[in-house]
Each structure stands twice: as C-alpha cells, then as structure tokens.
Design brief:
about 450 residues; 4-stranded antiparallel sheet; 3-stranded antiparallel sheet; globular
C-alpha cells in the first residue's frame, strides 16, 4: 500500500530590498486577505531561499520511503507489453534535484511535487502544508466535454458554471464580472454553455493534454485528461461538484487565461482574457508576515512529523492524522481509520465539498438501504441496479458495510439482474470494504460460479 511523503520544513528567512530601503516582505502585503492575485501569493511562497541542510535531509528521507512503493520499481522494470508505459525513475529524479540550484524553496518543492506526480500513482507523493493549497487558485468557468449533434466532442464552459461559481464565491464573483471586457462586462453568466474554440491561442486539447502530463494520480491517460474538466462525486451528505484542474488549481502559478469562445445563441465569437484569483486555503493558518507564515504553516511538530510510539510520554489520541487533509475522501472516524487498513489516493488539492446543482442530481429516489457515500437505485427497466459509490470509506465502518449488503439484497429482491457501480472520483478507502463489496456482489448477484478466490 502506498503512503504519502509528508514534509514540514523550517528555513531561515530572507527578504528583498529596493535601493537600500527597508526590506520588502511580500507576505505582509497579503496577510489577512481572503483573496489575492496569484502573483501576490506566488511572491510570498517564493520568498524563502533553499536551506541546503534541509534540502539534503528531505532528499534523504524521501529516498528511504521509495522501497515502500511498488510503483517505483514497476515504472522502470515493467515487462512487455507494459514496457512502453511511464518509466519515471524517482531515484534518478532525486539525484538530479540534489545537484540542482533553485531560486526558492517553493521552486524546489514544485520540482519534487511534479517529479512524484509523473509516476501517476495517487498513493505516492510529496505534499507540503507550506505550499500545497495554502492558496487555492480559481477561475469561475469550469469546463466540460460535451457531445455535438454529429457525435463528436468539444470543450464547453459548463452550462452550470455561473450557478456553481456564484454559490461558491458569493459576492466575490464581482471581481470577475468587472474583469470582462467591453459589452461582456458584468455579464459573466452569459459565458455559461459557451463553446471553447481556443485556450491561449491553441486547440483546447493542447491544454487538456498538458494537464494530463502533470496532474498525476492515475495510470490511465484518459482519466488524467478527465481531471481537467468539471465532474461530480457522491459525498456523505449529498452529491458534490468538482470544478476540475482548469478552474481550480493547487498552486498560484497562472495569472490569467485567454479564451476564444462562441456563446450560446451567438453567431460571432468572443475573445477574452480572464484572470485567476487565489483564495486562502481552508486549512491554512493566518499570518502577518513572512516569519509568521513560516512559523504557523511550515514548522515541523510531533503531530506533523509523527510520534515515537516507544516514547514514554507518548499518548494516543483520536485526532485525525495530518495526511487526512490531502486524502481524497470525506472525513472518517479517526479511531476507525487507525483500526482498519486504508488505501486512499492523495492530492495537493483537498477533496471538493461544493454542492452539485440540484438539477444535476439523480431524479429518481435512492433506495432506503442507501447510506452516506453509497446510494442504490433501480432503473426504470427494473433489471438494472446502480450503486453510486463515492468512496470506500464512511464515518461508520460497520453501518457502511451493512448498507452495502442490505442494498444489494434489496436490488435482487426487486428483480435486478445487472449492476452498474459508479466510482467516479472515488479516492479509495477501507481495504476491507472493497474486498467485502466484491464478495457480496459476487454471491448476491453473480452467484458462486464466479466467486472463487482467484477472482479477488
């Protein structure tokens, strides 16, 4: 099972000065602000130089974790016909990084972060509270891939874009209303549903494929392409909306985007440049200047670095592990998370909790046996059951397992002979729940002729 590599670093501080004036602190100028420009956040994150001692320690520690990741050796030793797949040599990456000079500690982290992302294994990564989602960078026009009348597919601004963005950003959406040029000024809602012809003067799929090269998480290139677009998942309280990597980004690296679009019911095209904006992260700790930013968000503690279980002063707690912030699952019972083995995908972007617009929710009611992230449906043909499974973990392990059993039994009792399991944006969870689901699906719906252990 892969584990994330978590690093919390403390560095010496450095400031820039202009013509002998007092040092300029780029963090002080944005302190206490909910929203800032990406370049402002980037300047704050980039204000700390690399500490060679800490850099060496990071590389040493990360190197020692690689033996725990089966994907590391698989990538460079895969036999035919898989030898043409990704072959990211992390040992070589770390050797390269150790010899390279960086303009800032943030630049060093980005190289580490992206090198591990190229393994395309969501269980193997380097994450850092100092930088990853300290500020989340947004643009209020999530994109989707829709089919045209001839069956081809094109990129569009999501028809629900304005509704989602205005609900999530509320009065702060006015920033983007005012940023639109000319006759479009104040008409952000008119962009919803527009066909996207060009992104930064190139075919939209250039941007889609560029994202697939750096987003990581999955071996499948198509799955990584999909991460560019808006999507959904079943959360513990309801259906939730993911804005996608075009509209929501982990790091404040992009200031604006140029789009050529054709709006709904328009015979002409529009060219716009729309800015991104960075919002202070939900888990980020407030600061007043560079020193307090580093102290509050970057200093290693026993909680972040782990505890010595043999320490005479060690006391077990029911607090969630720090890794939980980056796990792609809803919060779970911390005690059960320690009791049952888990395998959860990690990402620098916390799992979205934006509500899916009501008109996009399933119209048919779910079965009474549904629970939390597991919702059961019987389609109108009365033979096709659907299990929408947003995660393999829920807040109550026992109740979750029972709901899966009861839901499948109810589908069979109602005449279902087929089952569709929708695991869109399912980030993993309890290993025992996944194994349990396989066994009960097999015995309840497929019968025991396919339920031998070799099928596990």
């Amino acid at each position: 099972m892969g584990r994330g590599c978590f690093l919390w670093l403390v560095h010496s501080l450095a400031f820039t000065s202009v013509l002998g004036a007092l040092p300029i602190d780029p963090c002080a100028s944005i302190a206490g602000k909910k929203w800032v420009l990406p370049r402002e956040a980037r300047a704050c994150l980039s204000a700390t130089p690399v500490d060679p001692t800490v850099k060496g320690n990071v590389i040493e520690v990360v190197n020692k974790t690689l033996a725990f990741h089966t994907s590391v050796n698989y990538q460079i030793q895969a036999p035919p016909p898989y030898h043409q797949d990704v072959h990211e040599d992390l040992h070589a990456d770390l050797a390269r990084i150790s010899l390279r000079s960086y303009a800032s500690d943030f630049a060093l982290h980005l190289d580490l972060y992206r090198s591990f992302k190229r393994v395309n294994d969501g269980h193997c990564g380097v994450y850092n509270y100092c930088y990853d989602s300290l500020y989340v960078t947004y643009i209020p026009i999530p994109l989707v891939l829709l089919s045209n009348s001839d069956g081809s597919q094109s990129v569009y601004i999501a028809p629900e874009a304005y509704k989602v963005a205005s609900a999530e950003f509320k009065e702060d959406i006015q920033f983007w209303e005012d940023a639109l040029p000319g006759e479009l000024n104040g008409k952000l809602s008119s962009l919803s549903g527009a066909k996207v012809l060009l992104i930064n003067e190139q075919d939209p799929f250039v941007a889609v494929n560029d994202n697939a090269l750096i987003t990581g998480g999955y071996q499948s290139f198509a799955t990584r392409q999909n991460s560019f677009f808006a999507s959904y998942h079943r959360g513990p309280e309801g259906w939730e909306y993911a804005m996608g990597n075009f509209a929501q980004q982990v790091h404040p690296l992009v200031d604006s985007v140029s789009l050529t679009i054709k709006r709904v019911n328009s015979s002409t095209t529009d060219q716009i440049v729309l800015p991104y904006r960075s919002r202070f992260g939900s888990a980020s700790k407030n600061f007043t200047d560079l020193a307090s930013y580093r102290e509050n968000n970057c200093r290693a503690t026993k909680k972040t670095n782990g505890n010595n279980l043999y320490d005479i002063d060690f006391v077990a707690t029911d607090e969630a592990d720090p890794i939980a912030y980056f796990q792609q699952q809803a919060p779970v019972n911390p005690r059960e998370a320690k009791q049952y083995a888990m395998n959860v995908i990690l990402d620098g972007m916390p799992l979205s909790d934006i509500a899916l617009p009501e008109e996009l929710n399933p119209t048919m009611p779910s079965l009474n046996e549904s629970y939390s992230v597991a919702q059961f449906y019987l389609l109108d043909d009365n033979v096709t059951g659907v299990l929408a499974l947003g995660s393999f973990s829920a807040n109550n392990f026992t109740a979750f397992g029972l709901s899966l059993l009861n839901g499948l039994q109810e589908l069979k009792a109602r005449g279902a002979t087929r089952l569709v399991v929708d695991v869109t944006n399912n980030g993993g969870g309890y290993i025992c729940i996944a194994h349990w689901l396989h066994r009960i699906v097999c015995f309840i719906l497929l019968y025991d002729n396919l339920c031998n252990p070799d099928a596990d």
